[in-house]
Specification:
Two copies of one chain form a homodimer. With 346 residues, chain A is α/β, with parallel strands linked by helices. Chain A is built from 13 helices and twelve strands. The first copy, chain A, folds into three domains: 6-49, Orthogonal Bundle (434 Repressor (Amino-terminal Domain)); 61-163 and 302-330, Rossmann fold (3-Layer(aba) Sandwich), CATH 3.40.50.2300; 166-301, Rossmann fold. In chain A, helix 7 links the parallel strand 3 (118-124) and strand 4 (142-145). Chains A, B: It comes from Clostridium malenominatum.
């Protein structure tokens, strides 16, 4: 059967294409007789407007969604900009979708795939503790970007881009130990966090052990559930509580720079100095870590490169070139003004 | 003419609905004879699959888009969270679209309206200097949120939510004058900015004049075009240049808190103190303004309330309840540690 087009129908009927279109689409502005005639010709010629093809063209538009947990976290800002640039280069369009902490991102993704006919997904940040069965429900390629996973994910069904959160965390805590600190507090994610929080906590504990330092339970502090996670305010509240507990320590390591900013303010607010009274170290390498007073010692994650690699891997998968890929980037220890050798024995 | 449904066609043909659907959609899994018969019945009964209605149902899904200029600006983070919450409450879905500085947001919006069948749009941040003719091309309701406009916008065709950028800017500069400062530098947007940059600059000049202070051209400094606008780095570079120019001043007012953070770091880097050597004031009331060391004197914008009002106005317009609305919020002068009475006469 030859393919008949709307143009052919219009020619057969002796009307314009727009009139045929009006007939097909039940438009009120058409003479009933003309419409009946057109529909008859359409039927006789087995012409069927290809709805699926038309929908595809009109609404599909090659869309990639980035699902982000923690949209207020400045760590993601530069990544998002890079995602957008790279996705545009590929002539795809780009949806940024915030996922609430209480939402299941896989369900959000499945819904979006259906609604927006996505071609691919980037999961950015947050926990990621879904069963392999759940992940298998995602029928489009996806990449986990800067999501540490401690669980037994089937590495053949998903791709990932991150730093080695354990190793980098070890690196900065080891640096504090080498400065002479042995009473090092940590601010980390609650223990039910199976993601970067627990990886970075493990790095901390491992570095202490290797430096012959006993782990003190009272120096392991957790972000408050009732406050936004990784927020400056959360770091402030936890540090203030730690300072007021009378616990003896000379350094704080917080697992994000945002938390560290809050920690610093808490230290200043009780009239103590950094680094003379307390050394403070963070993680991420945000701009603000550099511009804060004092500048913050931190682990810089190469966010632009990580974002570029995320998109590269995603498009490899979309084009069917490869299956799952896993890329681990090196972090860099940036030494700021917020840490120094231990000056006093508390 | 009675409305005929796919169910009626199926009954008339003695087949299932899915078979009728396969016929309509040109599906390969259907007997050619059955298909011809169905199409004949369809034609005879003037049954026309209502594509537009079906598209609506499948892909429309009541979507609101927020078009944001300056996604890395933390000022917008809390607004976005509020937008999302309020839009979800209305059972609408939410697309966040970043607009590049070089892009025309109206064109981006028109494209999105077409692709995603938007029900409404929020324009967030940035310049907004489009002709009324251009604005009239937007066929869905929209609200300008925290976009100052100096141009002669037809206030009957668009709604807006913002603070009075002129008045609030006047307020904080007047505060600096009352502290005894008369040599006050400003960091603002380039002169071609017809938005908050020029409004806040006008507020600065007006406050100086009313305090009997002559405006010095050399103290009016502009963000660098080649750096990201309103970025910390931009504030740093401009302030560093100002400090090294040898220009005589005792206070800096930057039109955003992000710029102020950079300004502070530049002052520290040349070995000067805040506020003893320089008073520093910002605008926006970001969290970081409170947590920075020293805390920053600024104008707090009530971002959550502004975001809520934005969505309220948008949905009023979507429901056809009202035409254009314009809501101006009060800012609040927050006095931090970064400003003080003038201590020396330079």
């Amino acid at each position: 059967m030859e393919t008949i087009t709307i143009k052919d129908i219009a020619a057969l009927c002796g009307v314009g294409i727009s009139t045929v279109s009006r007939a097909i689409n039940n438009h009120p502005d058409i003479n009933e007789e003309t419409k009946a005639m057109i529909m008859q010709v359409i039927s006789e010629n087995n012409y069927i407007p290809n709805n699926s093809a038309r929908n595809l063209k009109r609404t599909d538009s090659n869309t990639i969604a980035v699902l982000i947990k923690g949209i207020t976290n400045p760590f993601f800002s530069n990544m998002i900009k890079t995602f957008e640039r790279k996705i545009k280069e590929k002539k795809y369009s780009f949806i940024l979708q915030h996922v609430d902490n209480r939402e299941n991102e896989i369900d959000v993704a499945i819904q979006l795939i259906k609604e927006k006919k996505l071609k691919g997904i980037v999961f950015l940040g947050g926990h990621f503790s879904h069963s392999n069965e759940k992940l298998a429900q995602l029928k489009v390629p996806f990449v986990l970007s800067t999501i540490g996973t401690t669980q037994k994910l089937d590495r053949t069904i998903c791709s990932s881009v991150s730093v080695d959160d354990f190793k980098e965390s070890y690196k900065i805590v080891d640096y504090l130990c080498k400065l002479g600190h042995s009473k090092i507090a940590i601010i980390t994610a609650p223990l039910d966090d199976e993601s970067i929080g627990s990886l970075r906590l493990n790095g901390y504990m491992s570095a202490l052990r290797d430096n012959g330092i006993q782990i003190k339970k009272n120096l392991i502090r957790f972000m408050k559930d009732e406050l936004e996670s990784y927020s400056i305010q959360n770091g402030y509240v936890v540090t203030r509580e730690l300072l007021e507990s009378g616990e003896n320590f000379t350094a704080i390591y917080a697992i994000s720079d945002t938390l560290v900013i809050g920690a610093c303010r808490a230290i200043f607010d009780v009239g103590q100095r950094i680094p003379e009274d307390y050394s403070v170290a963070g993680f991420d390498g945000l701009d603000i870590a550099h511009y804060y007073n004092p500048s913050i010692t931190t682990i810089r994650q190469p966010v632009e490169e990580m974002a570029e690699e995320t998109i590269k891997i995603l498009f490899d998968a979309i084009s069917g070139k490869t299956s799952a890929q896993h890329k681990t980037f090196q972090g860099e220890l940036i030494i700021g003004q917020s840490t120094g050798p231990i000056l006093r024995r508390k």
